[in-house]
Amino acid sequence: MDAEADSTQIPNIRHKCPACYKQFKKKEHLTEHMKTSNHSVHQPACGVCQKHCKSFESLREHLTGPLPKGVCSKIFSQRGCQLCLVLFDSPGSLVSHRETCRLSAPTRLGTRELPCIDSQFDCLDSSDENHAGWGPGGAVGMDCEMVGGGSDGSLELCARVCLVDEDENLIFHSYVQPQIPVTNYRYDITGLTEEHLRNAMPLYEVREKILQMLYNGESIGKVRLNGGKARLLVGHDLAHDLDCLKMNYPDHMLRDTAKYRPLMKTNFVSHSLKYLTRTYLGYDIQSGTHDPYEDCISVMRLYKRIRAQIHPEEAHETPSHNIVCVPDSWRSRELENLTPDQLYAMSKSDYKCWCLDLRPRLAS
Questions:
Q1: Contact 245, 204 (CB under 8 A)
Q2: Residue 85 and residue 96 in contact, taking contact as beta carbons nearer than 8 Å
Q3: Which residue spans of the chain are classified as CATH 3.30.420.10?
Q4: What is the reported pTM?
Q5: Which of 7-11, 220-224, 357-361 has the lowest average pLDDT?
Q6: Where on the tree of life does the source sit, at the highest rank (predicted)?
Q7: Domain 139-308 CATH assignment equals 3.30.420.10
């Protein structure tokens, strides 16, 4: 009886993650969770309860989903922006913010007969605060439109390409002469016909002009190392566009709205650009035929909106302080003695947050 009485007095201790608030019965389960969750200051977090979410969609469900968090949902409905999910001090501040947060759709180029546009794209001023992290390089947004080749029209052939700078200026536009015959112009989507491509620029020439803009006079070795003066390339599903252009560009210089972790679905599947634009910028695109200029502007706006987030620096910047780098010989023994907050301090994001693009790079 005494043993039973004593057992009833033992508290049911649960170990709570300080980032996502998941609870575990055993400390080692919390430790394993912290090793794989990659919690960091760069994760989307609720402005009310500060809960970390693995994507903006997870955060949106937390605030406005079918089963929202009660207190958080109530406060957010009064002082939160439905687009950027930021919580403001007062309803008045929210009203002022909405005037700039919800954007208007850009004017479409359409498919009228356009000459090849190849502007003189001079280096940006490195003193500009918008490009402080990447010096004179800055970023370039790109979008391609594809037609079909092959017997069934399923081969992806680049037929039109458009590039814009960070100020939404059109810096390059051209129709592209496919390397094999076009068997499906996909007119309902592209709006393109044989006439558009009759005197189009050859693919190799288009590729060289784009690379010249991106490399910005920098050596290939320097670009592969840390970028140098080269420009970041922004787009949606860039791997597809680069493949159709038969073009390579270093992965660390790509900013892809289809592959960026916080912009993906909760199961890490890509959203469409149409969905992202409507959800985070507040307007619709791709109504009817797709317009590469409209898509370019939208991916650039998405990138700049995410890049403008203000995050504190992570507690530990070097990989040696990450939980997964702790030696096996003492990992479990040492980590068991750490508090949940200490475990969180050792955790680190497994993706590069775009806000870091505005921070000065370390000299190579």
A1: no
A2: no
A3: 139-308
A4: 0.88
A5: 7-11
A6: Eukaryota
A7: yes
